[in-house]
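# step 3/5: fold
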Amino acid sequence: AFLLPNFVDIVQNIIQDLVYLAIGVFFLVRLETTIKRHRVSRIIHQLRSIAHVIDMHQLTKDPHRVLNKNLVTTASSPVVTLTPFLLRRYLDYCSEMLSLTGKIAALYLKDFDDPATVAAVTEIEELTTGLSRKIWQKITALPPETDE
């Protein structure tokens, strides 16, 4: 026979099960997002470090040091070994590496539009663009390219 208290208990148990199931699904979705965000943030940090290393290695590559033959140096001054042609190529390669670093960071946004990750990738792209712009200012200070 149909008893109202049994029916209410059954409905209550079904509702509780659905609520627990929804909480579990929500937790798993959040867990996946958290794991992806953590993984991408580690990689973004590595890419940021790569960009800074590229920048550090070209800091001593100053076109004015290469072009000025009467440059007064000290014992701790870096030795100038590059010709203007080689310096242009070196700086161009640095700019390309920075561009690739920004593009690699952008690839991590594919299929993952987390706001924190988007902000981190945007920061990397702005950093690499700014550093590349600084390098191109050095390139434009060099004389026009001639074959060597």
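# step 4/5: annotate
Residues 4-141 form one domain.
# step 5/5: archive (pending)
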